[in-house]
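dude i think i finally got it to work??
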Amino acid sequence: MLRRVADKWAHAIAMRELEGLLIKRTITAEEAEGQWNLISDGEVCIHVSSWRLVGDNNIVVTSEDHGHRFGLPKPIDAVEILNTVLAGAPVAKVEVSSTTGDLIILFAGGVRLEILTLSAGYESWSVGRKEDFATLFVGVNGGFL
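look at this
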């Protein structure tokens, strides 16, 4: 059952559960008609709307870049870039902002994937098991459910 993670104690327990689903696993991306699926070792699926991949000194690519040319010979394939950069890199740390609900996934090597909450009212991301599509967590303004 989904529950609002409001106090620090409940947030810490939920974070341990979320970390258990993602830490030491690898992530691959798929585009799904305006949404994005981030698959963790083929078991856990994170459905997201907006994201950005950040390297050492800059933004590498974002969901907003996908399909745009920016004067390049061909449109940017954000899925290809994301999967290339994250290939084989295990998740090292997971954070959820209790203020914004942003989900931040840090990888070995210093790259981070930021799942952004861009609405005060709509859910921005959800985490579920791929096999049965059961939703375990939902990212919202002010944290997660």
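The longest strand covers residues 27-32.
im so relieved honestly
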